[in-house]
Amino acid sequence: MFNGEDSIKLGKTPLTFTPTESGALLFELGLPGYRSGKVFVPEVPGSMSFNIPLEKIQKEWLSSLLLEAQADLLDESLTDLLTLQSQILRKNKKQVAALIQKFEKKYDKVSIFHSLVGNYHYLNENFDEAIRSYKAALSRNSGNREAERMLKFLQDDLQDVGETPKGTDP
Questions:
Q1: Is 133 exposed, middle or buried (0-12, 13-18, 19+ CB in 10 A)?
Q2: Half-sphere exposure for 77 (CA within 13 Å, toward CB)
Q3: Across 11-107, where does the E strand assignment appear?
Q4: Which residues, 6 or more positions from 65, have their beta carbon under 8 angstroms from its beta carbon?
Q5: 3-state percent helix, strand, coil for the chain, nearest multiple of 5
Q6: Measured in whole angstroms, how far is the alpha carbon of residue 98 from the centre of its chain?
Q7: Which residues pair with 39 in a beta bridge?
Q8: What is the layout of strands, in order, in the sheet containing 15-19?
Q9: d(CA 73, CA 112)
Q10: CB 3.0 to 4.6 Å from 111: which of 92, 102, 126, 140, for a disulfide?
Q11: Could you give the CA distance from residue 105 to residue 73 in angstroms, rounded to a whole number?
């Protein structure tokens, strides 16, 4: 399989196959100078077919690489969003409005930001705006279960009292 070579590299971002003396294989995806993603297959008897989810390896590898490179940015972002959440829970309307205005461009693509804005509008009984915010959160991340739960709750709750929220179809 390896024709006397220690390893085989494939692709632009090298996927390296390295056999071991025990017959195991080490699959490594990475670029020189960066942390690599690895999968270890204990024993490979004769010829064997197996499937390695390269997308998962790449995603995990890239995520850890980006986290290392952008730790300060992530810390700043989390601090901003937690500050917004804290002010919402304290019902400090003036501060929340200022933070939303300050962060709306910076975090427009972040689902959690829109969920927090939805929570703010919900707590202030501005249900139409809350629905719009939860829909915005879901458009950025369909896996945002909190936004999905709140949107369903609001739509069901408003229909129960005979109102049709402006952000929904009748």
A1: buried
A2: 16
A3: 15-19, 25-29, 37-41
A4: 34, 35
A5: 50, 10, 35
A6: 26
A7: 27
A8: 8-10, 15-19, 25-29, 37-41
A9: 16
A10: 140
A11: 16
DSSP letter, residue 166: T
Task: Tell the residue number behind the tokens 């910076």, with chain if given.
Answer: 106
Across the chain, the runs of DSSP E, i.e. the strands, are: 8-10, 15-19, 25-29, 37-41
pLDDT one-digit tens code per residue, 122-150: 999 999 999 999 999 999 999 999 999 99
CATH of span 71-160: 1.25.40.10
pLDDT at 157: 78
Each domain of the chain, given as residue ranges in start order, spans 8-69, 71-160
Per-residue tokens: 94: 């003036």
> Can you list the residues of the chain whose pLDDT is less than 50?
1-4, 8, 10, 47-48, 50, 165-170
